[in-house]
Amino acid sequence: MINRVVLVGRLTKDPDLRYTPSGAAVARFTLAVNRTFSNAQGEKEADFINCTVWRKQAENTANFLKKGSLAGVEGRIQTGSYEGQDGKRVYTTEVVADSVQFLEPRNAGAGSDRSQGQQPSSYQQNQPTSQQNNHTRVDQDPFSSGSGPIEVSDDDLPF
């Protein structure tokens, strides 16, 4: 049996981080995932998918993602049920994430104070440069430093 899910979407609100009585972190959030087709009126629709992530990934998700953040989620679908206040059975479906990827820079988008570059001082002190994050700024050409052809020996080639 295979139960794997890969989603890319935007958070509909800030993640809700809580801790179990035993101290395990759990974060819940809803991901808005656009459908690839349009409805009869020509409008794009989205699905709103409840996601849960545990432990260190939960803390990272709560610390680095906010409403509107673009995220990738990989995990499994889990179903459950409980008895509602009216006595009727309520069925649930959620994605339990094994991995949550942050798909845009921390300061991208609008929203909370975090998007305004107001990180805690400890975060700013330990912030790696964009080159260390394997990000290349669009306005920086990584090949502009040389004025001639790039020298590559046969030993440098992977084939």
From TrEMBL:
Any one Pfam family match given in the protein's UniProt record, by short name: SSB
GO molecular function per UniProt: DNA binding
Stretches the record annotates as Disordered: 102-159
Comp. bias regions, Low complexity: 115-134
Key word DNA damage present: yes
UniProtKB keywords: DNA damage, DNA recombination, DNA repair, DNA replication, DNA-binding
Assembly mode: Homotetramer.
Function: Plays an important role in DNA replication, recombination and repair. Binds to ssDNA and to an array of partner proteins to recruit them to their sites of action during DNA metabolism.
Protein name: Single-stranded DNA-binding protein
Gene source species: Planomicrobium okeanokoites (Planococcus okeanokoites)
